[in-house]
Design a protein that fits this description.
The protein has one domain: NAD(P)-binding Rossmann-like Domain (Rossmann fold). Helices cover about 30% and strands about 15% of the residues. The protein has eight helices and seven strands, in the order αβαβββαβαβααβαα. It has a seven-stranded parallel sheet. Helix 2 crosses helix 6, helix 3 packs parallel to helix 4 and helix 6 crosses helix 7. The chain is globular.
């Protein structure tokens, strides 16, 4: 059963206890990774409501999914509204895709909009923010190939979020150069013949990164406050696991993590 099947089945069931579960909101739910994050959040059933920012009203059939229509993120649009719009917000930067016209209705944040969007979310009562980059470096928009501007990240961190996490693009840990020339030759050959490389050495799937983001959002409220950066190696390692809950828990607690190196390839 696919993750989307789980999300659809979860949408027909009763929502979790609203008094106990937090509310999460996604900005950037139209791309390949953004839609996977939405599906993972709905399938996990760990949030009372899952909201998505949209440019126009959408009709949704799944319980727990709501759309929030916004026109922009100017300072004037960020007036507090009493009840927080969400407990946790997830901003997903991703390439645009045109799978169907419905996706065009979702807000697609641009890298230069991060400070304004973060200010708007903070003004709406959001206490925790997760900023997610595309799951593969090759999928980075041109404006993100060198990472978000440091000043933009610092501006978001200075807003006073209780928790702020930047999730980098997944990347396999770099392995040390082999001492034996035969092993170096094997590494070179396998690097060229992608069909012969083990699945753990292939680019990660959006669904696996989405599951990591969902787990991170769920465990974030119980962790120590502060700003964190999930490095590429951590995201890659989480994508290799069936269940990343223990890894996320250890990382948030700043405990020792399992080794991040992959087994050396053999011919």
């Amino acid at each position: 059963m696919t993750l989307l099947n789980h999300a659809l089945r979860a949408g027909r069931s009763s929502p979790p206890d609203a008094a106990a579960a937090p509310t999460v909101m996604v900005a950037g739910g139209g791309g390949a990774l953004g839609s996977a994050v939405l599906e993972a959040l709905l399938a996990g059933r760990r949030f009372a409501h899952v909201k998505v920012l949209a440019t126009r009203a959408l009709t949704v059939a799944m319980n727990g999914l709501e759309t929030v229509v916004v026109e922009g993120f100017d300072d004037d649009a960020g007036e507090p509204v009493g009840v927080p719009l969400a407990d946790i917000a997830v901003i997903v930067f991703d390439r645009e895709r045109h799978a169907n016209g419905r996706e065009l209705a979702f807000v697609r944040p641009q890298p230069h909009e991060l400070p304004a969007l973060a200010r708007w979310l903070h003004a709406q009562g959001v206490k925790r923010l997760v900023v997610v980059l595309p799951h593969t470096p090759a999928g980075l928009p041109d404006a993100l190939k060198r990472g978000l501007a440091n000043l933009d990240e610092h501006a978001a961190a200075a807003l006073g979020f209780e928790h702020l996490v930047f999730v980098r693009s997944a990347q396999k840990p770099g392995s040390a150069r082999a001492e034996q020339w035969l092993q170096r030759l094997a590494d070179g050959v396998l690097a060229q013949l992608q069909m012969m490389v083990a699945s753990t050495n292939q680019p990660v799937r959006a669904t696996k990164v989405a599951q990591f983001v969902c787990e991170l959002a769920a465990q974030l409220p119980a962790s120590d406050a502060g700003t964190r950066v999930a490095p590429p190696e951590l995201v890659w390692q989480a994508a290799q696991m069936r269940d990343a809950a223990a890894l996320v828990r250890a990382w948030l607690a700043r405990s020792e993590l399992p080794p991040l190196t992959a087994p050396r390839r053999r011919m």
